[in-house]
Amino acid sequence: MHCPKCHAPMNTYNRSGVQIEQCSGCRGVFLDYGELEALTQLEAQWSKPVPPAPPVAPQAYPAPPAPAWGAPHGGHHGGHGHHGHHGHHGHKSWAHMLFSS
Amino acid sequence: MTLLPALTAQARAAAHPAPGAAPCGCDEPATPLADRPDATVVRHADTVAKAHAPGTDAAELTLRLAVAARLPDVLLPPLTPAPAPLQDRLVTFWPYGAPVDPDDPDAAPWEATATLLARLHLTTPPDGLPPMRGPAKAARAVARLRAALRPEPHPAADPVLAAWAALPAWARAEAPMPGTPALCHGDLHLGQLVRYPAPGGPWRLIDVDDLGTGTPAWDLARPAAWYACGLLPPDAWTRFLGAYQRSGGPAVPASGDPWPALDVPARALTVQTAALALVKARAAGRPLDDVERAIVEACARMAPISPQLASADRD
């Protein structure tokens, strides 16, 4: 489509799931019916207070799979936990193992 | 003359090859980098001389040197194409490369290591190259444990020997390795990486003594074992494995669970590590430390769970 104001072509962008058109000439923005409300709602969600953190902070990514004989925390295939041995051993205490046959 | 001074003289001569040159005025004296029963390594200026283990086969070592010379993007290239005899040992000469700082394992180049391994594994091995010696090294570690137990048993040794007995024959060096043979390093750990040229050049793999054809998952299995034993943090393991997969390495599938391929070699290297830890603790007359106990405990958990034979997935 073309800009109703300066008639330059308009480009479509996605902003938080809402399609908006912006003019390539005057940079003006065109919103379809309901899009302004959708953006307002999204903004309200962002400014809501952050829910309290769960007692045990979850890991950002699931731990990669490990074998069943791996360090114990469930010990099931693919269910390698992350609250077990990891980090319990200081770097120094096992670093020598990294460097020898 | 014992080996170390003789090797030192050779390193100095290789660093200053001009015939009849005046005594060298290098600021830095020759430094022994390693002096173990299986290898003595001396550095002088930018040259390193390595005396290989007694009984090393000259023809096989020459083939392994040729691989390093042919793959300078992966392996540190040797200075000379063939080993030279010195007393009862074979000596090879190398340029000096800067190693990983053992006091800063966080700086370990996991991605670079994985990329080098993938490149190595994707290289067609030359004809006549002997097998990679990873399983043979594991078998040797278990033999050393058995010898150390002869005067007196050690309570922690039983689960280690049971885990070894449960491994398939190929992982105990009693049968050929399964699958399409790939070019493998055979003894990967963080001491096997240097920056060349030092100090800021790209990372290269060193130590071709165990290099050969075999199951490439063996080269990933030491980090895999450290991760499984709860020593290597998940993010370091993910970085290493991910970089290997992105580089197209053939040892594990490009995505999904890598453990069907890693299980057997990671078990074998866990057993090898546990066996050598027990030998060292016994020799020093000390109990196992926390880390060594974690490795032995992993062996104890292996016995009831039969290994996922990598070959079963391929057949």
UniProtKB/TrEMBL annotation, chain A:
Residues 50-67 have a biased composition (Pro residues). Residues 2-40 form the Transcription factor zinc-finger domain. Residues 74-94 have a biased composition (Basic residues). It comes from the Bacteria. InterPro entries: TF_Znf. Transmembrane segments: none annotated. Residues 50-94 are annotated as: Disordered. This is Transcription factor zinc-finger domain-containing protein. The lineage of its organism: Bacteria, Bacillati, Actinomycetota, Actinomycetes, Kitasatosporales.
Automatic annotation (TrEMBL), chain B:
Signal peptide: none annotated. Pfam families: APH. It comes from the Bacteria. InterPro entries: Aminoglycoside_PTrfase, Kinase-like_dom_sf. Residues 59-258 form the Aminoglycoside phosphotransferase domain. This is Aminoglycoside phosphotransferase. It comes from Streptomyces filipinensis.
